[in-house]
Design brief:
- The protein is of the alpha/beta class.
- It is built from 16 helices and 14 strands.
- Helix 1 crosses helix 16, helix 9 packs across helix 14 and helix 12 crosses helix 15.
- The longest helix is centred in the last third of the chain and has 17 residues.
- It is globular, with a radius of gyration of 22 Å.
Amino acid sequence: MIGMLLEMDYPKDIRVRKEAESLVTKGMEVVVVTPWKKGMLRSEIVNGVHIERIGRNHSHIKKGLADMVSSIFFINFLFYFRLKGIVKKYNIQHFHVHDLPLAKTAYLKRKLIPGRVLLDSHENYPELLEGWFLVKKSWFVEIKNKLLFSPKRWKKHEARIMPKMDELIVVIEEMRDKFIDLYKLDEKHVTVVSNYEKKSFAQSTKNMELDESFKFEEEVFYLVYVGGIGPMRGINTVIDGVSELKKRGQRVQFLIIGGGNNLYIESLKKQVSDLELDREVSFLGYKPFAMVNYYMQNAQINIIPHIRNGHTDYTIPHKLFQIFLSKAPLLLSSCKPLERIVSGCDGGWVFEASNPLDLADKVEEIAKNNDEAVRKAENGYEISMNQFNWESAAEELMKLYQRING
C-alpha cells in the first residue's frame, strides 16, 4: 500500500488524483491521507483510491493557524501524530509526500514503514512563496509571512530536507536539472512525472458543455485566459497589451476565467477601469471544468501569460496540454519550459514575458495568419497525443514504483 500525504483537498487536486488513480489501475493499492473538513466522509473509496481524512474540521481559519505552527518547526503535527495509526490500519509500505511542507514530517516517521519516502515536488515551493509577497495583505499577514514564510527561510529548509528523501518526483526537466545540480542528488533517484493531460481530454471537445450566460460574437477577436488568478500569472500584462491593441484600432475582447486572491482581482479590475477597457476585458469568474473547452474552442487565442521568475521557469501548467489537446491556437510567455516545449513542436507563438508591446505584436501576427494558427494548433495536438500525455507520464511513475519494489 502506498500512503500519499496531501495537505490539500482530495479528489480536487488534479495531479494527485491522476497519479493515485493511475497506480490503482496498474494494480497497486493507494490511500490518500488528507485533512478532514466538515461535510466530508472520514473514509471512502473513490475510483479505487482509499481516502483517509484526519483531524477536526480543517476550516480556512484552522488551516491558517496550523500552517503557522507547522512553519515554525517545518512539521505538520496533525500528520505527525496520526500517521502511526494509519500506517498500521492500511499496512503502508511507502510514503508518497506531496510538496515540501510535509517532507520533514514524513522523514521523521520513516521508521514506521519498510519502504521509502518519495517527495513529489509539484512546485518550486520557496519561489512560489515569493508570489505571496506580490499581493497586498493586512499588516498581520505581512508580518506573519516575513517571519514564517520568507522564501530565504524555506530555501534553507529545502536544502536540508531534499537530500534526505529517498526519491524525488518533479514536473519538468528544468526542475530536475536544477535540483540535481543544486543539491548534488543522484539523477537515478529523480524522476520526471509531468503535468500532462489524459488523451481522453481531446474527446471532451465533442461533448463540451455550453455556457448559456456568454455568447461569442463572430466579428470579435477573443483572447481567453483560463486558470488561477494571481500576480505570477501575468494577467496585468495582457490587460496592458489589450490597451495597446485598442490604441492601434484593433477590436479585441479579453476573457478572464477563474478565481484567486480577491484583493489582486480588484487591483486588476482597477487597472481595467483606469485604462478604460471595461468593454474589452471581462472577468467571468470560475467555470466548471466541463465548460473549459467551450471557451478554448471559441477563442482566437488561448493565452498563458505567466511572468518569468524562479518559480515559472521551473514548473509547467496543466492547461498548456489541455490547450494542445483542444487543438486550439496558443500564445504564451517566454518562461523557459513553456518556450522550450512550444518552440520545439512549433505549437504556438511566444511573446517576451511581461512585455505588453510584444504581446500586442504577436496578437496582430496571429490575427493575420489564421492558416498558420491552425497548423500550429495541429502540431500541438499531435505531439500531445503521441508524447505529451498523461498516459506516458503515468508509465514513468510506474517504472519508479517497480524499481523501488524490486
